[in-house]
Design brief:
Structural class: alpha+beta
Shape: globular
Radius of gyration: 26 Å
Helix content: 25-40%
Keywords: Aminoacyl-tRNA synthetase, ATP-binding, Ligase, Nucleotide-binding
Oligomer: single chain
Strand content: 25-35%
Largest sheet: 10 strands, mixed
Pfam families: HGTP_anticodon (PF03129), ProRS-C_1 (PF09180), tRNA-synt_2b (PF00587)
Strand order of the largest sheet: 4-5-11-8-7-6-19-22-18-17
Distance between the termini: 31 Å
GO molecular function, one term: proline-tRNA ligase activity
Organism: Urochloa decumbens
Protein name: proline--tRNA ligase
Length: about 425
């Protein structure tokens, strides 16, 4: 279902006090339309909670209408002062979900389920070892009771908020009067969630796995998993090489592998090697006259540079070739994830004092430590170090803890880092 409303009346945004306060600096306003001043200014949609609630109020009457769940891909606009491709842009595309439930427990279950979905996608498909957790009060989405997040470490060690899920409680339903009659005939306000992941995740993939040669795409999300480059020098070698290339391409396609052949004669094989490395294609197959004679191919891995990543004499026999390529694709997927985990873990420092946090942040690392200090203390850390609480991770260490800022008992550790 799609609620395609790019312009939202400003009065909608104003209905939920913390929502308008949180988003005011990022709003783009329309005051003139058709050459005339508008009676009510419009907001270019920064997020859809308000317009969704306007519609939910019309659609929901009874407990039989619940849960009501919508999912949409929508463009939103936020007035960023410092833009960065993919990561912080004025306008971006995202997947945006909104749900309404009869109870707080159902809403909480939905919010947690979606952050689990995002976590699983990050690990299993994008090979990004995100840290899932709960945002602090200061960092909670404007209008939400709780915000859950997945935080990813980029190649420059900055944190990227890669996806969020919010338990909105009844904040928006009370503001908009979104009510239903329960099974006992009582009128209640619905409990809601919203969750989103955006094109920012594309930037996350680039900055997690890329290197000086260009992109490096995990095989499970790569549009092209295998590029085949034919090689010949003499005219009489061409037909035999292309025939072998065609055969290998068909074998791999029939096995469900996303494969492309670049048989263009406008560029040299060396140029093509560099080109597809830059585009991040996980596996390259080279087939030349000698390979045709030997009924074999040369296989190169994008994630292992130079001769170390090359295998010679891989048989063209269909079952052998398919198993070999599928095995290599899985190896690359696992290798990229493990490399990212190792990089992440080696750049998180456990701290037990504010001085240690400052030192860790100054070195460009993430700092992890027990925290039970006030919102004012959290803002002090941000002001003095530019680092924020990225999350309270779901996975918490056992044992008693003491807040590194105040020395008071702490129930949880928090992760601090600079972010985009």
């Amino acid at each position: 279902m799609l609620i395609d409303q790019m312009f939202i009346p400003y009065s909608f945004i104003e209905k939920e006090a913390s929502h308008v306060e949180g988003f005011s600096p990022e709003l783009a306003l329309v005051t003139i339309g058709g050459g005339k001043e508008l009676e009510e200014k419009l907001v270019v949609r920064p997020t859809s909670e308000t317009i969704v609630n306007h519609m939910f109020t019309k659609w929901i009457q009874s407990y039989r209408d619940l849960p009501l769940m919508i999912n949409q891909w929508a463009n939103v606009t936020r007035w960023e002062m410092r833009t960065k491709p993919f990561i912080r842009t004025l306008e971006f595309l995202w997947q945006e979900g909104h749900t309404a439930h009869a109870t707080l427990e159902e809403a909480e279950k939905e919010a947690m389920q979606m952050i689990d979905v995002y976590t699983k996608f990050a690990f299993e498909q994008a090979a990004i070892p995100v840290i899932p957790g709960r945002k602090s009060r200061v960092e909670t989405f404007a209008g939400a009771n709780r915000t859950y997040t997945i935080e990813a470490m980029m190649g420059d060690k900055k944190a990227l908020q890669a996806g969020t899920s919010h338990n909105l409680g009844q904040n928006f339903s009370r503001a908009f009067g979104t009510q239903f009659m329960d099974e006992n005939g009582q009128i209640e306000h619905v409990w809601q969630t919203s969750w989103a992941i955006s094109t920012r995740f594309v930037g996350g993939i680039i900055m997690t796995h890329g290197d000086d040669a260009g992109l490096m795409l995990p095989p499970r999300i790569a549009p092209i998993q295998v590029i085949i480059v034919p090689i010949w020098k003499k005219g009489d070698e061409k037909s035999a090489v292309l025939e072998a290339v065609d055969s290998v391409q068909k074998i791999l396609k029939e096995a469900g592998i996303r494969v492309k052949v670049d048989d263009s004669e406008l560029r040299t094989p060396g140029w093509k090697f560099n080109h597809y490395e830059m585009k991040g294609v996980p596996v390259r197959i080279e087939i030349g006259p000698r390979d045709v004679t030997n009924k074999s191919v040369v296989v190169s891995r994008r994630d292992v540079p130079g001769k170390q990543g090359k295998e010679f004499g891989v048989s063209m026999e269909p079952s052998v070739l398919v198993n070999h390529i599928k095995g290599r694709l899985e190896d690359i997927q696992a290798s990229l994830l493990q490399k990212a985990i190792t990089f992440r873990d080696s750049n998180i420092i456990d701290v037990s004092s504010y001085g240690e946090l400052k030192e860790a942040i100054a070195e460009g690392k993430w700092a992890r430590g027990p925290w039970s200090a006030s919102d004012a203390d959290e803002l002090k850390v941000k002001e003095e170090t530019s680092a924020t609480i990225r999350c309270y991770p779901f996975e918490q260490p056992e044992g008693t803890k003491k807040c590194f800022m105040t020395g008071n008992p702490a129930e949880e550790v928090a992760i601090f880092a600079k972010s985009y």
